Amino acid sequence: MAKMKLGKYTCHKSAGGYQSLSVQLNVNVEGEFYGDVPDEYLKFVEQATSKREGVYMRSKPVPGTRLIGGKKQYITQLFAANLKDLEAVFQSLVNTAADSGTKEELVILYKIENNVSYWKNDDGSIEPTAKRRPLAQDDGNWKGVKYSQDLKSYAVNVYARVMVKVTQDNSDYIKYINPAHSSIEGNNDQTHPFLYLLNEFKLAFATEDRWLDGLVDISELKQMPYTELRAKFFYELLLGMCKLADRFEVLTDDTNLRQIVDSGKMIDFKE
Fold first, then answer.
1. What's 71's DSSP letter?
2. Stretch 221-244: mean pLDDT, rounded?
3. Is 157 helix (H, G, I), strand (E, B) or coil?
4. Across the chain, which distance is largest between two alpha carbons, in Å?
5. Is 250 helix (H, G, I), strand (E, B) or coil?
6. 245 with 235: CB under 8 angstroms?
7. Distance from C-alpha of 115 to C-alpha of 128, rounded to nearest angstrom
8. 3-state secondary structure at position 211
9. Does the reported pTM lie above 0.70?
10. Which of 53, 74, 191, 245 lies in disulfide reach of 186, CB 3.0 to 4.6 Å?
């Protein structure tokens, strides 16, 4: 199977802008030409191939993916004996998608988990548990994971990243893509400086359809529409996490830790 060329297909949208698609075209040992169909174009394949004889569709498991809900992830490919016919179908896919009402919007995907368990008194003081409180004295609340389970360690987890949410009219199709791979209007570091600052943190990208090692499952995340103010908030939140981690950094060395502990000094968590 040899790579031939990168096919590029474009169509002007009636609402303005362009619908574009790039496909790596290959040829197999039988002399057939083929290319992968992105998920967002699958709904248009039947219509496009019905108008062109000699072009057919085939699906195969995606290499390197895990089972999700007992189902293997598949990729769809189009095959044709004639390269011209194959490219005509890909162009037809783009033409149809251009009029389908595809919408792209910036969203912030996030997750904040308080994996800590403690009792907070009404006066603001904190204790490991409520065991020392008189049973009749209800002047506080459990925070974090509460008392239902023992934790392996205490941690506060924060995830935040800007993605582009792609939807289509009259369809339940949803896809999330890297803003760097989108042509959404205003997607640049001049109009959205905190988009780029937030996405500079070394956090894995989220994916909803291919659960690969090192990526984050979108089903575990919440989301909100993007604004520059919201992006600034999450940027400063993650920066605060980095500052807190920097204060703990000296404690990761056993020698430093013992010296600090034996000195009787306490860590000051106030700025």
1. B
2. 94
3. strand
4. 83
5. helix
6. no
7. 14
8. coil
9. no
10. 191
Quick one: tokens of 31?
Answer: 């002399």
- DSSP letter for each residue of 9-48: EEEE-TTSSEEEEEEEEEE-TTS-EEEEEPGGGGGGHHHH
Those residues with Cβ within 8 angstroms of residue 188's Cβ, 6 or more apart along the chain or in another chain:
none
Contact 213, 205 (CB under 8 A): no
174: left (phi over 0), alpha (psi -120 to 50) or beta: beta
82 residue type, one letter: N
3-state secondary structure of 262: helix
pLDDT tens figures, 150-203: 788 888 899 999 998 888 765 667 778 888 777 665 556 677 889 989 999 988
Angle (nearest 5°) at CA 205 between 169 and 248: 140
Beta pairing class for 18-27 and 2-12 = antiparallel
Residue type, 67: L
Name the band, by pLDDT with cuts 50, 70 and 90, for residue 8: very high
DSSP string across 225-253: E--HHHHHHHHHHHHHHHHHHHHHHGGGS
Determine how β-strand 33-37 pairs with β-strand 140-144: unpaired
